[in-house]
């Protein structure tokens, strides 16, 4: 529940609506005497404060600037680790190595990247999103220089490890930023935007790397990375204010001394000084009336706010940093016991592995007979995945939000996170088609056109859609720990990705393309079909965890 009702209000709402309100269930309409801040007749979740520096109140320019900077950081950090596919022949020659050893450049980076978020997410929770982006971009900058200058296999592997550590925020921080600055009804679209930028970076990397490796040398690709990362660092330094903003839970409000409470009997506003710039005014939801005029009076800064100077500090002070960091290291492991987080982790992990299959095998398949394509051509084939990703972006997010709103209206204005799940159905079908075309196309030596145009494009569509839908479902259910949710998802995804990179090429050599790709497709389908279980019993699973402390963080 992002509305943060106190116990009395919660019981009153449950009695009036005749439903059970558990974390994730949101009231998207006025109920009896309970009225909420709205925008275009739509109740806003979470309810913004009347602080002009509340990220939910920022004007369009600052929201756009923040999300642009976060998307650029996601893109440049994600571009490097999986860009090696068309460069593999050149790396084998440069380091006097072999296919399996060179593929480990990608596998090790993936593994390290996942676990690095046990560092980055606690730091972002304790000191803010801004210092994490700036620090990680600086380390990425150094790792790109190292990759460009590496002369030995061991040196390049060391640069891959450093790159994996630095690129961790690409997989976890932007979903937190989206939850910080956007309202619930907007998140599906922006979450899909995030995945489109993240997986788009993995698609664009090989497109650029192939031609550069052939015509200007593979080292120049990393010098290009140096320039892009440096430009993004400057962009974030001036265009990305701190978005971390603590919204007080009713338990915290009740603990504030009565001397700190001011206001009229109609509207009680509790003012509490929080860490750094987190100063928030918390209003009781029990308002006598909240028409359009009353909404403007309640929050005069809605859509007009801007960041404060404090939100441009290099980091936000924290009174208990070690306690906060240790807690955030533990929470992702705890979340593995939550069925919804586990469901999202498996859907994201195996959907991403469908794309990873193409990344790890494209040189092996298309450089060999009957195709005999050069790295330049193989790199350009990745445009099909990029186009698919764009199609996934423009359809999945808006479709997810539209279906959720339609089902909310049919449910008398009550939003449940499970209402996003039906959106997965068309994208599961697209995923199955794409895997069939790629597996049997490569195995039987089909013409490259259906493999790339249909198979690869389907891979792009599903990898932009399925992870976004599943992860948004998990964030809607456990928003206070959105960063930790993505750590759990990322660790699961990257451990599988690392293991997948260890055996897929050997398996293909021994048994052909069909067994490994079809096995992976069946696993994706299995985890997605579990969505039926969560459609029916998802609220029961949330009820089991309703008293968990993760909802009070």
UniProtKB/TrEMBL annotation:
Membrane-spanning residues: 102-120, 192-209, 221-240, 335-358, 378-403, 424-442, 448-469, 481-501, 513-537
Swiss-Prot/TrEMBL keywords: Membrane, Transmembrane, Transmembrane helix
Domain of life: Eukaryota
SUPFAM superfamilies in the cross-refs: MFS general substrate transporter
Subcellular location as annotated: Membrane
The UniProt record lists the keyword Transmembrane helix: yes
InterPro entries assigned: MFS, MFS_dom, MFS_trans_sf
Any one cellular-component term (Gene Ontology): plasma membrane
Keyword Transmembrane helix tagged: yes
A GO term for molecular function: transmembrane transporter activity
Domain Major facilitator superfamily (MFS) profile: 66-553
Bilayer topology annotation: Multi-pass membrane protein
PANTHER family: MAJOR FACILITATOR SUPERFAMILY, TRANSPORTER, PUTATIVE-RELATED
UniProt protein name: Major facilitator superfamily (MFS) profile domain-containing protein
Organism of provenance: Alectoria fallacina
């Amino acid at each position: 529940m992002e509305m943060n009702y106190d116990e009395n209000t919660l019981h009153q709402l449950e009695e009036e609506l005749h439903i059970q309100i558990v974390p994730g269930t949101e009231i998207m309409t006025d109920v009896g005497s309970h009225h909420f801040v709205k925008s275009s007749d739509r109740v806003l979740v979470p309810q913004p404060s009347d602080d002009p520096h509340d990220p939910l109140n920022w004007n369009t320019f600052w929201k756009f600037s923040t999300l642009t900077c976060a998307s650029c950081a996601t893109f440049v950090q994600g571009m490097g680790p999986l860009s090696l596919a068309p460069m593999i022949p050149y790396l084998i020659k440069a380091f006097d190595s072999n296919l399996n050893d060179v593929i480990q450049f990608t596998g090790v980076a993936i593994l390290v990247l996942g676990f690095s978020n046990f560092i980055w997410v606690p730091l972002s929770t304790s000191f803010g999103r801004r210092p994490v982006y700036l620090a990680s971009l600086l380390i990425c900058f150094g790792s790109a220089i190292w990759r460009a200058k590496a002369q030995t296999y061991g040196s390049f592997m060391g640069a891959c490890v450093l790159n994996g550590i630095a690129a961790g925020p690409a997989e976890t921080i932007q979903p937190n930023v989206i939850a910080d600055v956007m309202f619930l009804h907007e998140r599906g679209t922006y979450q899909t935007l995030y995945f489109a930028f993240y997986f788009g970076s993995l698609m664009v990397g090989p497109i650029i790397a192939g031609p550069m490796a052939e015509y200007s040398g593979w080292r120049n690709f990393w010098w290009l990375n140096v320039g892009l990362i440096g430009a993004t660092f400057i962009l974030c330094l001036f265009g990305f204010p701190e978005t971390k903003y603590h919204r007080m839970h009713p338990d915290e409000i009740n603990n504030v001394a009565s001397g700190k409470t001011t206001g009229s009997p109609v509207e009680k506003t509790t003012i509490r000084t929080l860490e750094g710039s987190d100063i928030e005014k918390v209003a009781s939801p029990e308002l006598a009336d909240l028409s359009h005029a009353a909404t403007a009076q309640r929050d005069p800064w809605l859509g007009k706010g801007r960041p404060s100077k404090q939100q441009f500090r290099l980091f936000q002070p924290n009174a208990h940093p070690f306690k906060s960091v240790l807690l955030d290291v533990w929470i992702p492991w705890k979340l593995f016991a939550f069925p919804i987080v586990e469901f999202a982790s498996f859907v994201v992990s195996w959907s991403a592995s469908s794309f990873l299959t193409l990344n790890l095998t494209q040189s092996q398949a298309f450089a060999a007979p009957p195709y005999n394509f050069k790295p330049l051509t193989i790199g350009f084939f990745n445009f099909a995945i990029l186009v698919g990703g764009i199609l996934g972006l423009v359809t999945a997010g808006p479709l997810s939000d539209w279906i959720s709103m339609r089902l909310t209206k049919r449910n008398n204005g009550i939003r449940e996170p499970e209402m996003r799940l039906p959106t997965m159905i068309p994208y599961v079908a697209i995923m199955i088609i794409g895997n069939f075309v790629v597996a049997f196309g490569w195995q039987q030596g089909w013409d490259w056109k259906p493999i790339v145009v249909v198979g690869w494009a389907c891979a792009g569509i599903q990898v932009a859609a399925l992870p976004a839908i599943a992860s948004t479902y998990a964030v809607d259910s456990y928003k206070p720990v959105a960063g930790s949710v993505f750590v759990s998802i990322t660790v699961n995804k990257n451990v599988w990705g690392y293991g997948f990179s260890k055996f897929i090429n050997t398996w293909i050599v021994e048994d052909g393309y069909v067994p490994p790709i079809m096995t992976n497709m069946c696993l994706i389908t299995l985890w997605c079909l579990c969505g039926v279980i969560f459609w029916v019993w998802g609220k029961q699973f949330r009820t089991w965890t309703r008293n968990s402390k993760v909802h009070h963080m």
